[in-house]
Specification:
Length: 318
């Protein structure tokens, strides 16, 4: 029986091959890492401490998930939402809030207020009378009627309704009125600015009545012949609006419904007419009609009555 010696296998030529094979196995074991099958016994962790396999330690954050790259130190924390890139507010910097101060302009200077008296107050009252806000005789005393008139004027134009005549209110009033005459300052007459005519009032003979300015303008072929104060019905007996024509003239008419005088009546729609009103002359705009167009200037409506003919147009508008 022939005996083969094992030493022949482990000769000098075979050792390098075996060494290379073992090295390849070691390389494969290293590169497989945590993905390889576990073996009995403790495994070696990358920190050199015995314990669970690196697969179990994978529950911790990886360098990339922790914001780190291999070989780098701890990453800087990402800016939080509270770390705003906007400049610090004036409260934190101690700077005065200049923008807030600039956004609140100082109030307008007051020229006249309740208790004042003199020529300028009389002029104020006469100018307010021109646009229908003051119905008393100018007295030169800034009383409750003047306060109420100024408040109404201010509120209509979107100004603060203080009742005081400040520089803004005064400039606005000057732009809408004319220099009062001596008769206006004494309360003997009121010269109202000419109201803007409705387009329907520009042709022919028309009584053009504006509810905005509370005036009646007698217009012939587009030219205003006269203008007078008027008042209208209340919300329960409103004056109709639209285009009408005069169908009846009655100089000494008396209402059969209300048993009241209606001098110089010019009927234009049912029982509604333009006529003189003693109540309007006495009470001003504190009262209202039953739907008619009241005139308080008797001489003015008498002259109008003499000129108007049946069939002349009546336009009532805002």
């Amino acid at each position: 029986m022939k005996i083969v010696q094992k030493t022949a296998v482990w000769g000098p030529r075979t050792r390098p091959v075996i060494h290379r094979a073992l090295a390849a196995v070691a390389v494969l074991a290293v590169t497989a890492g945590c993905s390889g099958p576990t073996v009995d016994g403790p495994t070696v962790r990358t920190d050199g401490k015995p314990g669970r396999s690196s697969a179990a330690s994978g529950a911790g954050p990886s360098p990339s998930s922790a914001g780190m790259t291999p070989g780098s130190g701890p990453s800087q924390p990402a800016p939080s939402e509270s770390a705003s890139s906007e400049p610090a507010s004036s409260e934190s910097s101690g700077a005065p809030p200049e923008a807030d101060a600039e956004s609140s302009p100082p109030p307008a200077a007051v020229l006249m207020s309740r208790g004042a008296h003199g020529k300028q107050v009389r002029e104020l009252q006469a100018r307010l009378a021109q646009i229908g806000w003051f119905d008393d005789t100018p007295s030169g005393v800034y009383g409750k009627l003047t306060v109420a008139a100024v408040k109404g004027f201010q509120g209509k134009r979107g100004l603060p309704t203080t009742g005081d005549t400040d520089t803004v209110t005064w400039r606005r009033l000057l732009s809408m009125t004319t220099e009062p005459t001596g008769a206006e300052l004494r309360g003997k007459a009121v010269n109202k600015p000419v109201a803007k005519l409705d387009p329907r009032c520009l042709d022919g003979r028309v009584m053009c009545v504006s509810k905005t300015t509370r005036t009646l303008s007698w217009v012939v072929d587009g030219r205003v012949r006269s203008t007078m104060d008027v008042r209208f019905g209340s919300q329960y007996t409103p004056t109709r609006e639209g285009s009408f024509s005069v169908f009846l003239k009655s100089r000494d008419h008396v209402s059969t419904l209300y048993d009241t005088p209606m001098p110089y009546a010019l009927f234009f729609s049912g029982g509604q007419a333009v006529h003189y009103s003693a109540d309007f002359a006495a009470q001003g705009y504190n009262g209202a009609s039953h739907g008619c167009v009241n005139v308080r200037d008797r001489a003015a409506v008498a002259a109008l009555f003499s000129e108007v003919r049946k069939g002349d147009k009546v336009v009532i508008h805002w």
